[in-house]
Amino acid sequence: MKKSQKKLKKQEEEELKQLNNSSDGVEILQKKSVKDLISPSGIDASNIDHMEIISNAKRFARSFFVSTLPRMCSFPDIFRDMYMFGDINTSIYINPIAEARSQNELNRVINELETERIVAADRGNINRESVLTQKRLEAEQLRDEIAAGYNKLFEATVVSTLFAYSLDELDKFTKLLSTEMSKTLVGIKSTWAMQEEGFQSNLPLMQNKISKSHTFDRRSMGTVFPFTTSEVGHPTGIPLGFNKQTGVPILFDNFHSSLTNYNMVIFAKSGARKISYNENSNFKIISTYGNRKLSA
Q1: Model pTM?
Q2: For the residues 213-240, what does the mean pLDDT come to?
Q3: What is the CA radius of gyration of the chain?
């Protein structure tokens, strides 16, 4: 009996030691943060125009910021080439501007444009005078819309980081990206001597360290969201309406293989006939696909 009790005590002691060793391993994992777990082996940020990410395979990274924008743009063409270029990350930091500050800045711009217009008129420069007159009218219209609450100004910073497995490929992709973005009159510049700040600005940490911003109003701000096409529909769908931007009919198939589910949500103001639209859609779907109800 005594020998069996001694054996049981030894087994219990060994089990306790194993549990203590496993708990020490768990504590070590708990002490590490998410940054420590996902970070690479090392990053060399000593270069002026690129960075080296050292991990299982060495990669090169170069960060850019949007330097120039076109006067007019269309959705979703302005940044589509940047979103779909390849191995690239893009971050957009959007900060609203207070109405009082917007009014003061627009009034200052209007006064400057009017002064330049008067000088151009005195010199007989008719072309410059007409351009400045148009800009002044647009600034006045934007100021009145903001004062009435129909519009708002935003400051936005667009930062991108391009990756490649060799420096030659990185230079090649940089030229190609610059050429593609120039098609929509968007100019990009490398964050020269600030590659580390540009790379950190593109991480999901919400820290913008690039102070290069552009001013957007509410309508132009909607064009920067990462949608790749303005066309919605499927060749096997049922008619739901027309695209207001392009005038193309929308043929939507709720049961298309490219969709994760067949549900649809309808948003509209009160009295816009959402129920009748839902009933008509259900009738079209039932007549086309059988007894399958549309969830709205």
Answers
A1: 0.66
A2: 78
A3: 29
